[in-house]
Each structure stands twice: as C-alpha cells, then as structure tokens.
Known about the structure:
By secondary structure, the protein is an alpha+beta fold. The protein has helices at residues 6-30, 34-46, 48-58, 64-82, 90-97, 100-103, 108-111, 127-140, 157-171, 190-198, 266-282, 314-325, 341-352, 368-383, 417-422, 433-448, 455-459, 463-474; strands spanning 117-126, 145-150, 175-181, 202-206, 226-229, 233-237, 258-263, 299-306, 329-333, 356-362, 387-391, 400-403, 407-411, 425-431, 450-452.
Amino acid sequence: MDTHSAAFFGYVLGLIHTVGAVAAIHALLTVRTAQGAIAWAMSLFFIPYLTLLPYLVFGRSTFDEYIEARRQANREMQDAIAHLNWRPWVDEALAAKASSAYSRLRALPRLGRMPCLANNNVGLLINGEATFERIFEAIRGAERVILIQFFIIHDDLIGRRMQAALLEKAGQGVSVRLLFDRIGSHALSRRYVDTLKRGGVQVHAFSAGRAGLNRFQVNFRNHRKIVVVDGKIAFLGGHNVGDEYLGDLPPLSPWRDTHVWVTGPAVACLQESFAEDWFWAARELPPLLLPDTYPDEGALCQVLATGPADAQETCALFFIEAINSAEHRLWITTPYFIPDEAVFAALRLAVLRKVDVRILIPSRPDHRVVYAASSLYASEAVRAGIRIFRYQPGFLHQKVVLVDNEISAIGSANMDNRSFRLNFEVMLLTIDEGFASQVSDMLEQDFALAKELTVADSKKTHRVLKLGMRIARLISPVL
C-alpha cells in the first residue's frame, strides 16, 4: 500500500481510534473515580492521537500488578518487624482512646494503620531556614541511625549541605539510609548519589517500576518527607531539599511552608512508615530504634501514612472525616485546591452547620493547569459560602488542617486527587490544645497576609480565562 495515499492515512487513523476506544473501555473499568474515568474515556475516544501516550504514562491508576506487589511487600515488612517486639505502646494508646477530642474523629482508629498515641512533644518549624537548621542540628547530634526521605532533592546549596552532613556522620560510623523519589528527583545528578554511596551512605530511589512493574507509569509517587534520628526525634511536613524551599529563588519566593518536629512514641510510627518504603526499594529492613522510656505526658499524635496500596482511599477519607468533625472552625492551607465531589460536599455542609471554613491557597502558580483548575474550584467555593484566601507575599506550599481548638494535621498531603489516590503521603495528626493554639496563631498571621476572594472577583474573570479554567477542571481528576 502507498504510505502516502489517503487510504493509508485512513487506515492509520482508524487503527488509532480503535485502540483509543479499547483504552477508553479500560479506563472506565479501572480508573478509581467516576470523574477520572469519564475524563480519560471521553478524551481517549474522541482524540486518541493526543491522549493515548499520556494515558500510558499517567493513566491506569489502579494498576493491579503494582498494587498487589506493594501490598505483598508491606506484608513481608510487617512480618519481619514483628520479631523486633515493635509497638510496645499499650498505655499510650489507651490514653489516646480516652480523649474526647479524638473520639470525635470516629473513623480514625480504623482508618489509620497506626494507632493514636499519647505522650508526644510536637513543635512547629515555620519556613525553610528554621526547618533545615533544626534538621541539621539533629543530624549533627546523631549517634546511631539516620533515616531520611524526600520527594525532591536538588544538587544545589542546601542539597550539598545535606550531602556533606550525611557523609560526615557516615564517616563517624552512623548508619545512614537515604530514600528519594525517582521522578520527583529526576534532575538529581548521578555524581551526587555516587558520592554519598562511596562515603558509606546507603541510597535508594523509590520507583513504582521496580522489578519491571508499571514500567511506563509515573503515578504512585512517594511524596513523603521524613527524617528520623536515633529513633528519638523525627521531622515531617511540606519541605523538600532545594534552595527554593528556603525562599531564595524567584519568581515564587518568598516560599511559605511548614514542617513539624516530634519526639515520643509517634517517632516509632514514622520509622515504620519509612521502613515500608525502604523495604519496597531495598528488600531489607532499615535499622529501627526504640527509646528505653517515653515521657509521662504530652500531646496525642497519630501518624497517617497513606497511599495507593491502602485498602481504602485513606487520604481522601481523612479529609472528609476531619471536615465532618468540625464544630466551630475549619482552617485549611493547601497549594493545590482540587477537591473531589465528596470533599467539596463535606466543605459545603460544614458551612451550612455554621462552621468557620477558611481555605488558604497561593496567589502565584507553579503549575498553570493545576492553578487554573484550582481557581475554578475556589470561585465555586466562594459562592457556596466557603471563605477563600490567596496568600500574597510568595508561593504557599504548606499543608495544614486545623479543626476547632484541639485538632491539627500537618504533613505532605495536598487537597487534590494525586494526594487522595495516587501519591504516598504522610500527615501527623495532633490532638492538643496548646499545639493547636500555636497552629492557629501561625495561620492567623498567614491570613493577615492574604486577600480574601469575593463573588465579585469571580465575575470579573475574562471569558477566555473562564473557558480555560473549565477545561482544566475537566482534566482535574487526572492532574
């Protein structure tokens, strides 16, 4: 057949549309949400020549082979860790169950894989300088084990500071384990990693494609940020390792982010979360340490490690439960406001219950399509009575939830489909009036630097921009 003939091109287009139709049926059968399934199926059916390749890379979000392999790895890790007399926290767990504030989160004891525990100390780390200084201080004081995990690591000034700190401790005989996400840290140089390995640091890249699984898939990213030193102190939150997280790089600077430090039995839960990811990447357990004693008092904390291998959509259900538990106040900060229908309905119901619902989002985009979709949801939220604020000084990246006067959650999860269903995330839920007061003071300062959106603002949006926002919303379930 003449490859330049019209008939040949007709056959090619027919083949592409046939494959697109098959892929559309596959999307309807496998994509977790109705919105996502419709978004993929419609685009695959009508414009397959534009969407087949993206579906191969970004779609197939319930890739069964990977999910089952990850669950099997988690089971093997739990079997291995059971021999270490792990989880000796009976008194701490009983104290948490007796809390009236925690009892309002009725689903959390069964939703979270790790228990809520008493007798923790928790502190805020506001912005990059405070966060990294405290992390480096803990690393310098390490005597036995450092476990460190980030979604993004850059070979820049702060990245090289971390590299030097880890090499120094490895040279002193401290066992150092470093885990980073292969896609999130795609720009990290091989030389950076090799230097660490030659210095005695054990390094692995987290990949969903291990052992040939999910080879073309870039979903299932490990978005967690965890540092644990000697089993005594841990850090988690929104910061990755890069100069932009110190707020030094325009056009998004100054960067606004939040981390927390924690001591007490919750540190063991963060080690367990790290161990699951390390076991998947290395097929071995990292060194795990438990202190001889814990404090006699302190805050209640529950580590929520969520991900696509969970039996239920733990992250999305956590947001819904937190929203539904609010009686007086619900303040949320998120860089990406793309809630699914269930979360958005819970927010509207909270407003109808006369809860003070406020959501703080960025005023500057780091991803324009995501920003456009987020803007449309923000406009609809304002019309529903939800108070939406745009942070003005720089890019807002923190992920914080504050419920009433005792409950807060800080970690890596955004309010979007990727965190709800595709990424591995970790949040620290804290039930403590004193710590919640600190979080409230921090957020009040952020709201003071923000501009509240009004219904009139949404009406001023140009029609072309409104069209772009609605197109972005159509693909929001797969962003």
